[in-house]
Automatic annotation (TrEMBL):
It comes from the Archaea. It comes from Halocatena salina. Signal peptide: none annotated. Keywords: Plasmid. The lineage of its organism: Archaea, Methanobacteriati, Methanobacteriota, Stenosarchaea group, Halobacteria. This is ParA family protein. Residues 10-171 form the AAA domain.
Length: 287
């Protein structure tokens, strides 16, 4: 049986660890949703504002009071919207996000503030999809984003601490939300991210892919799955026509942010765009 989902068109890209490439996935996911599925808004609620900066909206990040007026007063989130040349809209993060987080703790119904003040009004204004770029550390804002979304994409990268970050967010946040909603909330995908070209035995990329395919395979998108038979072929005969699994490091991905745009707008030939399309299809079908 397919799991029930909240079907509200809202997805959070989330993990309790920084440096996982959340903003890369969230921005490119928003672009592919807009291109192929419907009106989309990217909402950056990470206090660091990397996604906002990547897209060239650093000035908006530094402006005082805008986000606070929406969350704690009666301003409408449409006042925050930045319309972009790539189709999707942006709600930028704020340099005051830490202050906003502290104020949230003292509010009634503190875990649904983002839902009530930002996400629901944007959906009511006709946005079919809302992509939330979430904080990498535990916070009231992070709790709000997960409650508002109830659909989750979790990026993990090779190296120490990545799997433990995945386990922390699963145990402390995602699974409790799924249980509290009787299965309406859903983990749409766990995606390996920022992989290199090497999948040789005992290398960090290989260890990550083996761990995910052994312990988390039900959550992996098709591009991240690899069977024991395929590993055996790779080790004995070479990779051949087996695709490299996971979202991989590409100059186009990093350079696109230097140029303040999604990768498909920077280099439409980048071979990783198809993976963002896959994630967008999963969101369109299940979020």
């Amino acid at each position: 049986m397919e799991p029930q989902t909240s079907q509200n068109g809202v997805v959070a890209v989330c993990i309790l660890k920084g440096g996982m490439g959340k903003s890369t996935i969230a921005i490119n996911l928003a672009h592919r949703l807009q291109e192929n599925h419907g009106k989309t808004v990217y909402v950056d609620v990470d206090k660091n504002g990397h996604g906002t900066e990547f897209l060239g909206f650093g000035k908006a990040y530094s402006e005082n009071g805008q986000l606070e007026n929406v969350i704690f007063r009666d301003a409408h989130p449409s006042e925050l919207l930045i319309e972009t040349e790539w189709g999707f809209s942006v709600v930028p993060s704020s340099a005051e996000m830490s202050t906003i987080n502290d104020r949230m703790k003292n509010q009634m119904n503190a875990d649904v503030i983002l839902k009530n003040k930002i996400v629901d009004p944007l959906r009511e204004d006709g946005h079919e999809y809302v992509v939330l770029d979430t904080p990498g550390d535990p916070s009231k804002v992070a709790d709000n984003a997960l409650v508002a979304a109830q659909s989750f994409i979790v990026p993990v990268i090779p190296g120490q601490g990545s799997i433990s970050g995945l386990e922390r967010i699963m145990e402390s946040q995602l699974l409790p939300i799924i249980e509290a909603t009787n299965g309406a909330a859903d983990i749409l995908a766990i995606t390996p991210n920022m992989l290199s070209e090497s999948i040789r035995p005992k290398k960090p990329d290989r260890r990550l892919l083996e761990d995910l395919n052994e312990n988390w395979v039900d959550y992996l998108p098709p591009y991240a799955r690899i069977t024991d038979e395929q590993w055996e072929q790779i080790d004995n005969q070479g990779r051949g026509d087996i695709p490299l699994p996971g979202i991989r490091e590409r100059d186009a991905l990093s350079d696109s942010f230097s140029d303040n745009k999604p990768v498909a707008q920077y280099d439409s030939s980048c071979d990783q765009i198809k993976h963002f399309d896959t994630l967008a299809e999963i969101v369109a079908e299940r979020a």
